[in-house]
């Protein structure tokens, strides 16, 4: 093997290494068609180079032709390579340009999206601020509502219109009605009404209206059983998902009592003024008739003429006693006040009162020790005691017992404010209690009115208790009555003490 052959063989095999590498590059960079062309050209070039080195004498290919082919293929190969490189770089430049546009678009989109997110974040922060402000205002409103409801001086509560259970109530309700929170929560709205008013309350609950309404005046029961008069203002609502009613109660018991006392005082004032005027004029006429009758009795010796005159004088004396009662009624009875011990007065009057009561009624005494003296007219106080005992006797036609009692009472400012007639100080209290039939509320309303009687026309003048009231007022005292139909009565007369 000579050197030229080896040289030719190496030159022919070297181009054969290029096509696989070119094909590999074409696959990597994506120009597969150019790779196949390179592969074919370099393969042909290697074959021609090999043929040129081995060509025998009998082959038809001349060395000149082979050289020409090589000279043609080499520029073609370089041209194709340059086209491939140009194509590759153009594609790369296109990709880079596309990448730049893509990045620019992406940055623009990111900026737009960032701006939208910033705006959304600002809106969200504003919404959060508004909600926090709203929650703060709502919390403040709740606190104000709770304060207005809880600390309202008027009793307020909310109850379920179906079950009548209390859903909410304020401190004034517990304070006014005397219950604890647990006790009031265990009650229902029906428990505040007396049994006789319960049906009317249930009918009223069926009349639901959404506007604020004044439900007039109702009676309510406190924990200690006391009945009070309340004006109710109501508002129907939906509370905790169920129909409910808000109640605002205004206790008008004291107001109605004062109105009643004022009306009674006005009636008494009119009556006493009229009775006083009649008593004065009538007393003058009676005194003249009694005096003339007495003078005629002394002059006449004929018994037939004297007896009518005596009857005239006796009737005139009775009429004079009636005028004295009227004067006591109008608090114009002549008084001689002096220190008086009520215990001794009761002791001295016991026998006289026993004779007035008869055998069917027993008289008992329960006098308190160390009773302070009062400044009073003994005769008028005896008349007060006698009228009260006779009134108690008339309330027990079938018999019973009467108890006379005395005790010292201290009236403070708060106790005095509950009754316009009371004043602070120390008082001696005279009580007359009976086991009779008692009095209804209607009778109690007219108890001290002049000429009012339950005994029927012609049986009583109706001046006994009215006289008692007038004489007690003349002594700067007052009378309290506690009674119930079928359970007896108790009259308490309060006299100011001489040392108060």
Describe the SSE topology.
Layout: H1 3-29, H2 32-54, H3 63-150, E1 156-160, E2 166-169, H4 171-177, H5 181-185, H6 198-205, E3 213-221, E4 227-239, E5 242-251, H7 253-299, H8 303-329, E6 338-340, H9 342-357, E7 361-367, E8 374-376, H10 378-394, E9 400-411, H11 413-417, E10 425-434, H12 441-445, H13 464-474, E11 478-483, E12 489-496
Parallel strand pairs: 7-9
Antiparallel strand pairs: 1-2, 1-5, 3-4, 4-5, 6-8, 9-10, 10-12, 11-12
Summarize it.
It is built from 13 helices and twelve strands. The protein is α+β, with helices and mostly antiparallel strands and 500 residues long. The chain has a five-stranded antiparallel sheet with strand order 2-1-5-4-3. Strands 7-9-10-12-11 form a five-stranded mixed sheet.
Which features does this protein show?
500 residues; alpha+beta; Beta-Lactamase; 4 domains; 13 helices; 12 strands
Outline type = rod-shaped
Please, how many domains? 4
Work out the helicity level.
55-70%
- Quickly name the level 1 CATH class of the largest domain: Alpha Beta
Q: With helices defined by DSSP (H or I, 4 residues minimum), what is the helix count?
A: 13
Architecture (CATH level 2) name of the largest domain = 2-Layer Sandwich
What is the number of beta strands? 12
> In percent, how much strand structure appears in the residues?
15-25%
**Helix and strand run:** HHHEEHHHEEEHHEHEEHEHEHHEE
Mean pLDDT: 76
| Named CATH topology of the largest domain | Heat Shock Protein 90
Alpha carbon gap, first and last residue: 164 Å
Structural class: alpha+beta
By CATH, the superfamily of the largest domain comes out as Histidine kinase-like ATPase, C-terminal domain
Strand order of the largest sheet: 2-1-5-4-3
Radius of gyration over C-alpha positions, nearest whole angstrom: 62 Å
């Amino acid at each position: 093997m000579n050197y030229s052959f080896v040289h030719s063989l190496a030159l022919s095999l070297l181009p054969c290494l290029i096509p696989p590498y070119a094909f590999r590059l074409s696959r990597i960079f994506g120009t597969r068609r150019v790779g196949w062309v390179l592969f074919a050209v370099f393969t042909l070039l290697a074959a021609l180079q090999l043929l040129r080195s081995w060509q025998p004498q009998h082959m038809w290919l001349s060395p000149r032709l082979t050289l020409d082919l090589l000279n043609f293929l080499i520029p073609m190969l370089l041209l194709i390579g340059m086209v491939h490189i140009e194509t590759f770089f153009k594609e790369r430049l296109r990709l880079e340009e596309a990448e730049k546009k893509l990045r620019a678009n992406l940055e623009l989109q990111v900026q737009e999206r960032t701006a939208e997110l910033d705006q959304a974040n600002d809106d969200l922060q504003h919404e959060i601020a508004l909600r926090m402000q709203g929650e703060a205002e709502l919390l403040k409103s709740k606190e104000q509502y709770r304060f207005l409801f809880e600390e309202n001086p008027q009793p307020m509560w909310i109850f379920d219109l179906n079950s009548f259970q209390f859903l909410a109530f304020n401190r004034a309700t517990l304070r006014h009605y005397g219950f604890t929170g647990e006790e009031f929560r265990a009650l229902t709205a029906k428990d505040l009404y007396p049994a006789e008013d319960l049906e009317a309350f249930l009918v009223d609950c069926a009349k639901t209206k959404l506007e604020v309404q004044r439900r007039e005046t109702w009676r309510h029961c406190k924990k200690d059983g006391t009945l009070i008069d309340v004006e109710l203002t109501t508002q129907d609502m939906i509370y905790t998902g169920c129909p409910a009613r808000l109640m605002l109660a205004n206790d008008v018991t004291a107001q109605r009592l004062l109105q009643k006392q004022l009306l009674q005082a006005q009636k008494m004032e009119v009556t006493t003024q009229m009775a006083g005027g009649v008593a004065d004029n009538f007393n003058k006429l009676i005194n003249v008739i009694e005096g003339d009758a007495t003078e005629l009795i002394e002059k006449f010796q004929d018994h037939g003429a004297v007896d009518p005159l005596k009857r005239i004088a006796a009737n005139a004396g009775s009429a004079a006693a009636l005028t004295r009662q009227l004067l006591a009624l109008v608090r114009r009875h002549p008084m001689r006040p002096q220190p008086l011990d009520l215990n001794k007065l009761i002791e001295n009057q016991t026998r006289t009162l026993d004779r007035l009561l008869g055998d069917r009624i027993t008289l008992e005494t329960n006098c308190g020790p160390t009773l302070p003296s009062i400044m009073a007219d003994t005769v008028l106080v005896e008349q007060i005691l006698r009228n009260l005992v006779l009134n108690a006797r008339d309330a027990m036609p079938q018999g019973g017992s009467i108890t006379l009692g005395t005790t010292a009472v201290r009236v403070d400012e708060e106790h005095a404010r509950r009754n316009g007639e009371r004043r602070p100080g120390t008082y001696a209290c005279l009580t007359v209690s009976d086991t009779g039939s008692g009095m209804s509320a209607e009778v109690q309303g007219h108890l001290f009115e002049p000429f009012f009687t339950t005994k029927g026309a012609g049986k009583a003048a109706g001046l006994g208790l009215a006289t008692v009231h007038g004489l007690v007022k003349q002594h700067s005292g007052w009378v309290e009555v506690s009674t119930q139909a079928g359970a007896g009565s108790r009259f308490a007369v309060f006299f100011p003490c001489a040392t108060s």
